[in-house]
Fold this sequence. Notes:
This protein has one domain. The chain is elongated. It contains 5 helices and no strands. By secondary structure, it is mainly alpha-helical. This is Probable tripartite transporter, small subunit. It is a multi-pass membrane protein. Belongs to the TRAP transporter small permease family. It comes from Thermus thermophilus (strain ATCC 27634 / DSM 579 / HB8).
Amino acid sequence: xxxxxxxxxxxxxxxxxxxxxxxxxxxxxxxxxxxxxxxxxxxxxxxxxxxxxxxxxxxxxxxxxxxxxxxxxxxxxxxxxxxxxxxxxxxxxxxxxxxxxxxxxxxxxxxxxxxxxxxxxxxxxxxxxxxxxxxxxxxxxxxxxxxxxxxxxxxxxxxxxxxxxxxxxxxxxxxxxxxx
Length: 180
């Protein structure tokens, strides 16, 4: 179990590192959006590249930030019932949900997007809009983001198993764990 918990910590560190980059992307997209609006309304100047860069950055925030949100238990959840359950029951629900839904869905998206992304990269796909940006780099973010999500799902799965088997004395979603 120690080796699995070490793997979990490594995955958590990866998610944390990507999350720290995402924070800067939020600032970048905010500044780009404000600058784009200023240029459009004050100087009557607009560019498809600026507009596409906004949605590329916005896409990166959500695609690459999913694993970070899962690590910190910041994802959307209906806590009406879950929050009233014991930690042990919560761990079982998370374990089953991760095994039956999160990891298979993430792997399915990676599998289904692979040819689409590979084709975009092979032809160096560009935006159909005049002055637009290359599309292939942003398409790579789809399988990468879901791979990060699947990895973080594996980390969460390891932590739930460790808690349920007594290798973690106490566990709360989103908090750092210590090995016994």
